[in-house]
């Protein structure tokens, strides 16, 4: 990988939004929330990446509804929330640098012309200016809580069906890799309260070291109880669905962490 001091000019200009937003940074909850795919911003220098406006509203550009649900969870729990403002098409802030889809050339059948032929210098620039600031801020929030009970919850959404793929019947997935403590407790509490809502472990994805960043780096390495939450995006496109799901998650999450504390 190139070194960051080899970058000659900045990608982000003063007219571009900052990559990170912290909501309720002094929140008193034991839970810290992150939302890696909250935004759809594109740096001015990259124009529109060649992606039509309609596609920038789709799940390929951001996790639809995840930001709104995250903000509601932050308010309901009194929990700090770290949000990423840039589109995952610019750089996916829940991927390691070498992951094939950290800078996707195609996403769910849609070409991303602005990522075709992207050199290592340009990839590193996006990583250093957008991806890493988000994770430094999240690390700082967690550092300040050292020595106190802390639970990391990463909030995402998924599409009901990928192009040419099977339908995804789950309404919610609870993801983990090596450490399933919090995921198992949360899922048990959720199912007990909502037996008719399809919810499953590690669906429609699972967490690993090659396709994920937040949980391996901030959860597993620190030894913090954690989970990655996936809510089906057609259920949280509107305010009513977002409020309903925030309430459902908060109830089960509060019960799950009480068992650990």
What does this structure look like?
The chain has 261 residues and is of the alpha/beta class. The protein has one domain (4-260): Aminopeptidase. 30% of the residues lie in helices and 15% in strands. It has 5 helices and 9 strands, in the order ββαβββαββαβαβα. It has helices spanning 66-77, 120-143, 181-193, 214-220, 239-260; strands at residues 20-23, 31-35, 81-84, 106-107, 110-111, 151-158, 172-175, 199-201, 226-232. The strands form 2 sheets. The protein has a 7-stranded mixed β-sheet with strand order 1-3-2-6-9-7-8, sandwiched between helices. Helix 3 packs across helix 5 (239-260). The chain is globular, with a radius of gyration of 18 Å. 42% of the residues are buried.
Q: Roughly what percent helix?
A: 25-40%
In the CATH hierarchy, what is the class? Alpha Beta
The CATH topology is given as Aminopeptidase
Shape: globular
Major beta sheet, strand line-up: 1-3-2-6-9-7-8
- What pattern of helices and strands is seen along the backbone? EEHEEEHEEHEHEH
| The CATH homologous superfamily | Zn-dependent exopeptidases
Query: Uncertain regions: pLDDT < 50 for 5+ in a row?
Result: none
Let me know the average pLDDT: 95
| Total domain count | 1
- The total strand number stands at 9
CATH architecture identity: 3-Layer(aba) Sandwich
Radius of gyration: 18 Å
Largest sheet: 7 strands, mixed
β-sheet strand percentage: 5-15%
Assign the structural class, choosing from mainly alpha, mainly beta, alpha/beta, alpha+beta, or little secondary structure: alpha/beta
Give the distance, in angstroms, between the N- and C-terminal Cα atoms: 41 Å
Number of helix segments?
5
Keywords: Hydrolase
GO molecular function, one term: hydrolase activity
Organism: Microvirga makkahensis
Protein name: N-formylglutamate amidohydrolase
